[in-house]
Every structure is written in C-alpha cells, then in structure tokens.
Amino acid sequence: MASEPQGGLTEYISHHLHFLQSTHDGDFWSVHIDSITVSLVLGVLFSLWFWLKARKATAGVPGKGQAFVELVLEFVDGQVKDVFHGDRRILGPLALTVFVWVFLMNAMDLLPVDLLPWITQKFGVEHFRAVPTADLSLTFAMSLTVLALVIFYSFKAKGFGGYMHELFTAPFGSSPFLWIPNFLLNLVELLSKPVSLAMRLFGNMYAGELVFMLIAGLFSAGSWALYGMGIIGYTVWGLFHILIISIQAFIFMVLTVVYISMAHDHH
pLDDT tens-digit profile of 74-85? Predict the structure, then answer.
C-alpha cells in the first residue's frame, strides 16, 4: 500500500527517489547509507545461507534447500565452464557470488514500495531506498571492481611486459606509428566494460523501480477503479519483473566471466 502522496504523484515519486545520505544534497562527497546497508545485509545473509547448506550437506538424497543450492551451483559452474577453460577455483565462486548477490539486490524491487520507508520512518529516517542496484554509485562500484580484476588477471596471465606489448601493438600491428592508436583503442575498450556493466544494470532496475512507484501511486488516487487497476498492475508487473531481475543478474555474471576470460587471451 502506498502512503498518501503529499503534493501529488510527482512529489510522491521524488520523495521515494531520495537516498539516505551521509551528507546534505549538493555536497561533492556523499555516501548512500541505504544502498550500502541493504547490499551488505543481503551479502551476509547469502553467505550465511550457503555456508549452512554446505555444512549440513549430505551425500544421500538432498533436502529441498540443499537441492536448490546445488542447482544454483551447477548452473553457475556450467556457465563458467562454457566461457572459461582455465582454472575455475577462483572464478567459479566469484561468478556464484556475483549472480546470487546481484539477484538478491534486484529482488528488493519486488517488495512493496512503501514497506521499508514506512519501517525506517518509525526510527526517524525520512528517506530510504530499498533497491541497491537502482543506485548508479553502487553499480559503478561493482563494475569498477570487475575492471580491477580484469587488469589484475591481464598482468597475471601475460606478465607486465606482455600486457604492455599487447596494449601498444594490438590490433593494428607493432609499427611505432601505430602504438598510440592501438593504445587509445585498447583504452576505450577497457573503460567501456565497467560503463556497460554499470549502466545496463542500473538502467533496467531504475526503470523497474519507477514503474512500481507509478503503479503504487494509483492506490492513493481515491478511486476504487484506479485502486483495482493498481493491484492488477502491481501483480502483473511484479511477475514480469521476476524475469527482468533474473536476466540482469545472469548478464552481469556472464559478462564478468567473459571479461576475465578475455584477460587471459593472447592476441
């Protein structure tokens, strides 16, 4: 249920798009406390959940919880195996963490729009956004972490000299006249990876969040017809959004694996 909008639907949506910040609006440096808090809580719950299932795992007929965890593990491992043909001892757990963590953060969009803000207001917190992946700062932080891993594995697989040689000689050749064009092209390719990762995830989740807010605004319109349309719309969009949050988590995971796999390849 949506709370009564003060000043109409526009102000209602604007109110829900504010983050719980460590500083005032307009300051250069600002920490979005709500995004960090929700993402950390979900990360801890995910780690605890899988650790408990792994601790209680049996070789016999698995229970429903163990069967589900094994299904997720096999699915992620299969995707990594199809893309990366090297040692998967690190990349497999990394892909699993990315997939489940991003999925859980995306799934916060399925909660009623006013639920967490209503709870936090009881503790005197005016603004609170529940979907971390609808925060561009957080998606860019995740994508920059992937970029750091890509650079690390590039140096690890090719060595400092080999990677520097590749940056300045691929793809046009090793002529000194082509060093600058080669480097600029590789730099653009390298920087485009975190941008595409962050913007794709943020754009889809931000749009989905806005749709939920628009539908939630119908509940406070004062019309039974609009109220009924809101319930139907919320249900239909929620069911469709399950597909969106799953696809976005899958894409983020696969691209992470692909980018790290490309870091191991030699031109």
Answer: 999 999 998 888
Q: Write the pLDDT tens digit of every residue in 6-32.
A: 556 788 888 888 888 877 655 667 889
Which residues 6+ apart lie within 8 Å of 173 measured at CB?
Answer: 182
Q: Is the distance from CB of 47 to CB of 67 less than 8 angstroms? A: no
Q: Per the residue annotation, which of 204, 223, 246, 261 is the catalytic one?
A: 204
d(CA 247, CA 113): 22
Tell me which of 22, 47, 192, 196 is the catalytic residue: 196
Give the number of other Cβ atoms within 10 Å of residue 57's Cβ. Answer: 14
Backbone angles phi, psi at 21, to 5 degrees: -105, 155
Cα 120 to the chain's mean position, in Å?
A: 23
In the residue annotation, 186 being an active-site residue is answered as: no
What tokens appear for 41 in the block? 């809580």
